[in-house]
TrEMBL record:
The lineage of its organism: Bacteria, Bacillati, Bacillota, Bacilli, Bacillales. CDD domains: ASKHA_NBD_FGGY_EcXK-like. SUPFAM superfamilies: Actin-like ATPase domain. One of its GO terms (molecular function) is D-xylulokinase activity. This is Xylulose kinase. It comes from the Bacteria. Keywords: ATP-binding, Carbohydrate metabolism, Kinase, Nucleotide-binding, Transferase, Xylose metabolism. Substrate binds at residues 81-82.
Amino acid sequence: MSYVIGIDLGTSAVKALLVNKEGTIVAEASRSYPLYHERSGWSEQRPEDWVDATHEALRELAANENIDAGAIEGISFSGQMHGLVLLDGEGKPVRNAILWNDTRTTEQCREIERVLGDKLLRLTRNPALEGFTLPKILWVRENEPALFQSAESFLLPKDYVRYRLTGRRHMDYSDAAGTLLLEVAEKRWSDEVLEAFGLPASFPPPLVESHELTGTLLPEAAERSGLNVDTKVFAGGADNACGAIGSGILSEGLTLCSIGTSGVILSYEDDKSKDFGGKVHFFNHGKEDSFYAMGVTLAAGYSLSWFKKTFAPGESYDELLAEVGGLPPGAGGLLFTPYLVGERTPHADSSIRASFVGIDGSHERKHFARAVMEGITFSLNESVDMFRGAGKKVERIVSIGGGAQNPVWLQMQADIFGATVVSLENEQGPGLGAAMLAAYGCGWFDSLEACSAAFVKYASEYVPNQEASNAYVGLFRAYQQVYGATRELNETLAAYRA
Ligand SMILES: Nc1ncnc2c1ncn2[C@@H]1O[C@H](COP(=O)(O)OP(=O)(O)O)[C@@H](O)[C@H]1O
Ligand SMILES: O=C(CO)[C@@H](O)[C@H](O)COP(=O)(O)O
């Protein structure tokens, strides 16, 4: 029997999946690592924590008594996007990584807009958003000049882990797309953008396809992980690209909803000239020469995990959510906007913060929990709405991520999106997508589509309940008004944040 491993380097944990040629997940291992929020809006991780956690997770899989490590032919990656890992001349990180959900870079975003004007959207196909990598590079240069002086190059999170496993530096197109340094449609680093900000051509690493072989394991990495030194290491992709691959989103007309720490609505695109005017992200897919458009809710699953940590510590998600299914749409007139760390789509705003609106003396914790789930889903529905407005059909949505583990939430998604929602048999979207890239890279299949036909197994379908859908139309309109009504208030309150 032969195997591949898909490694999903997430925000809360790394998860590694051991997958056989039938696409069955035969073992999985996970290790979590801390997030550091030194100030409001800041979010960092230690690259060394990712490396240690990845080795440990791999070691657990390789030590599986039923598996011969020599039968593990290849590994590949899915990674949290945009995070900046600045490296010195010896390839060592000069500081902690600044993550995708860090919003300290509003000034640098305005600077990028000032310097590049219309060129920004034309070249990179994306607007300047706080989460993207270029603003983070500029922030370090402006605020930590001594550290920046020692920086000679950068990588993204999963590329750094791969570098530590193979000793070789690369970045795949799907992750490079989120740096604001890539000409997405042309698939090349943008000399114009690099020059405009005085960055040398050697600053970004060589570009590769997601299924491309990037090397084999270094002897010390083989020893630490327990894998064979000749295990093939394939580039992998951005978590959302891998989530899409692992859900079979490989052709036009297919849409993904992912509720992890962040939440995304992603729509496959063949046409590289498709223009959404920068309202949604436009990135390269992990499938060669294809693309996707995507709207992002910054604090999707994070809103629920914050609520659980703050108001139900020690309870499981199933316990916390046990009673929400018994409440009607609208949680008894309680609305929540999930802006705990600012927002991206449709309001690129790092100052906005979350609200509960309509708190009534009769409300109990279950009403708040339902309102949080509905608010997250309303935020994602803004992206669904935008895609429909741009002429795309959104009729069937594959739902993945931690949020897809709760059947009440899956039905709520169908009711709010007004579309059939489909879950996966073994909810492991991005990790499975990474394993599929390794399986395709190893030559097990002629195409990612053939691999998807064998590996991706759909489970239940949730069809919109007409009565609930109708109720949500009015509630969604009310939800959409909360942003405008609380924007200025939050600007005032920003001065009081820690
Ligand atoms: N049983 C569950 N029911 C509902 N939501 C859940 C459940 N388990 C996890 N979640 C949600 O999923 C999120 C984690 O999703 P995950 O895909 O593991 O995140 P990431 O890849 O960002 O680390 C949590 O923050 C939580 O909101
Ligand atoms: O910033 C984005 C996409 O643009 C996020 O989707 C990150 O890629 C992290 O995702 P999760 O940890 O929520 O999976």
